[in-house]
Amino acid sequence: MIHLDEIQTIEHDVLVVGAGGAGLRAAIETSNLGLSTGVITKSLLGKAHTVMAEGGMAAALGNVDSRDNWKIHFRDTMRGGKFLNQWEMAAIHAKEAPDRVRELEDWGAVFDRTRTGLINQRNFGGHRYPRLAHVGDRTGLELIRTLQDHGIHQGMHVHMECIGIDLLQDGGKISGMLAYWRETGRFVVFRAPVVIFATGGAGKAWRVTSNSWEYSGDGYGMAARAGAELMDMEFTQFHPTGMVWPPSVRGTLVTEGVRGEGGILTNSEGVRFMFDNIPERFASETADTKEEAQLWLDGDREARRPPELLTRDVVARAIMREVKAGRGSEHGGAYLDISHRNSDFVKRKLPSMYHQFKELAEVDITAQQMEVGPTLHYYMGGIRVDAESQMTNVPGLFAAGECGTGLHGANRLGGNSLSDLIVFGARAGLGAKAYLDKLSGTPTVQQEQVHEQMRSVIDFLNREDGENPYVVVDDLQTTMEQHVGIVRDGTELEEGIEKLQKLKERAAAVKAHATSQYNPGWNTCIDLRNMILSAEATARCALQREESRGAHTRLDFEGEREEGLTFNSVVKLVDGQIEARKEMRPTPPEELAKIANASLEDLEGSRV
Amino acid sequence: MSDRTFRIWRGNQQDDGDFVEYSIDVQTGMVVLDCIHEIQKQHAPDLACRWNCKAGKCGSCSMEINGKPALSCMTRMNTFEPDETITVQPLKTFPVIRDLVSDVSWNYQQNQRIRPFAPRPRDPDGEHRMMQEDVDRVQEFRKCIECFLCQDVCHILRDRETQQNFAGPRFMVRLASLEMHPLDTDDRLQELKDESGSGLCNITRCCTEACPEHIGITDNAIIPMKERVVDRFYDPLVWLMRKLKPGNSREKTTVE
Hints:
The structure holds two protein chains of two kinds. Chain A is built from 18 helices and 20 strands. Chain A is an alpha/beta fold. Chain A folds into two domains: 376 residues, FAD/NAD(P)-binding domain, CATH 3.50.50.60; 138 residues, Succinate dehydrogenase/fumarate reductase flavoprotein, catalytic domain (Flavocytochrome C3, Chain A, domain 1, Alpha-Beta Complex). Chain A starts with 7 loop residues before the first strand and ends with a helix. Chain B is built from eleven helices and seven strands. In chain B, the strands form two sheets. Chain B has a five-stranded mixed β-sheet. Helix content of chain B is 36%, strand content 14%. Chain B is α+β, with helices and mostly antiparallel strands. Chains A and B meet through helix 3, helix 4, helix 11, helix 14 and helix 16 of A and helix 1, helix 2 and helix 3 of B.
């Protein structure tokens, strides 16, 4: 096999994998700290999944309602996460988000404004106050373009259309990564003592998803194979409102911003069913009549929020229930309606939704109802990291954004994702610097490791024959929809895990035709193993958690159980097999526990 | 639910390419990108094409469909005649990498040349204040998803000789978004005139027609930028004033 010296080699202090919000923010931090930083991205720069985020980024700026502060944001996040979040991460996030958002303005971001010229904030599910800094319904695009246009002048090197294969290690420590260029199909060795993963989730393992081809769990697969732990993998968020019709766009996201701006959900009988789905925990803060919901929309500060703005897990399950009871919309969802608001208002506040429905479904949302249903949207779980530094249990490996875990617990609040990216992206950059400052010597790249990894992917091209990888992906998606969907059950999960074992065998024997140059078939072969690993980790954690909490719903274990609050699920690869265990949760820091359990009055008055 | 024929350009930069015919069953609501994915699944797993969001938000899947530059994820099959053959090929202005994927790196080089945003200091209370009506125009420009369809249809860029002298509509929009940004303190008019070649555009509006985000590229971005350049460099009065008061040449035009 080719000698290591003959393979293209690029050296960096820090290699960031992924160029979405978290990756670019981390790279800006490390570049500014004087570290040579490379960023690899599967797609072109500026196309990462972050562009699809619509509603906004949550930060307690208090621009629209001055009663807001970090403690209430923290409390909302914990409650939304059903108290399975990592306490310190939720606190760091709530405290640092406002500065990270303001900083974007210095880098050129142009958020929608309040009447006094400040950053405007909108309401979103689970957030007590208008908290989401936004730009119409294209906030993600604004974030990524801002970071991109600022980042390229900070000294980072962006390597586009370059895909990671596996991490390289020297005695356990990170020494770099093997990757390949899509354009040529050639290999490249990155020598870097720090790798920061910002690789997103693994939603592509499901059929109905808002995720693109990039979301194949690369970070989960590569991290697990390098010995890192994954945590909370059972918590996969089904966004309540994906498009349901026509079939080719099933799953495409419909922003929560529609409900934030007053959109209502009804069933086929015209009943606003969310009023019948208010959980006890949120009853005191949720309107129970249409009249009160309307008052809230009109700006009455004493009125409680409409039930459409309950957390995503609650809304998604309610829609499922209506469909199952035979009260679904024409194509098996629910109706979402914003047409009662002024047509110009809708076009200004939700321009891309207007565009999307008009072009893809021939529906004019200023006059007609939308049809929506749950779609796999987000991984709350991911690579287990230290709250402060974002480092994993593998020395030199960091993770930030969706691929990391800890902030969101059992369910993520809308808007907490974009702020997660910038808060923990920056933190990972700082963590990388601290690690490098203490690191003695440079971990080296071992030829044998590189060869082994190269062989594992060249085999797909070289073998005489094998199955079409697209067919295996298709079967994986069917399996996940059937066995690890929005409502789960022990027997179903066990059967699903069985099927995943067979899929694993098939995935190892797939065949890519033609050459390695810009070959999506070969890409799919390589992605598939990460997708299946992520899917199995999710299924095993889901089987282990015998309760229903947040985004994880078990038919055979209804409701939250006391035991469920005592552990987080942790997954590790042991001799090539995925093993799940229960990791006991430590006692929460006293001060944070007090804030999370305090009354709103006390928090607003800063008495806690 | 009908059998449709596609002619798709296959090949790479080294070899000469050719159109290859594929037939697939097209279901209700499908867009061209769905059909390409079906062709990959059924007939050509190695057919190269870029895509991401599949909702017109990322600008990855630009290609030429029946000769017209478009986002394939937003081009519905029912916009064609029932028996029409759909011809799909990569963007013509940029070199082909393989099949439907072209090398758009030239655009990233143009962006790198533009000097970054340079904000004024924050107000004493730590805030930046901008009124909504003052940022509406800039927000229009910032809707750009960098699909590069405007670059593809621009005849200045299609001509390899003039390409090097003009940054193209996308970057005229980007420059305009900086020039009209209420917080920006830099002055990019010299750069607009010399390096970005604002004078080369002769306002045929092809870019505006191609823009899937409906940005008023020509009327709202390029023409105002051309006017500013003309006012600064070609207005005899302004020219004379500058000669007399040399320190005043970096005044910034904002939308206040």
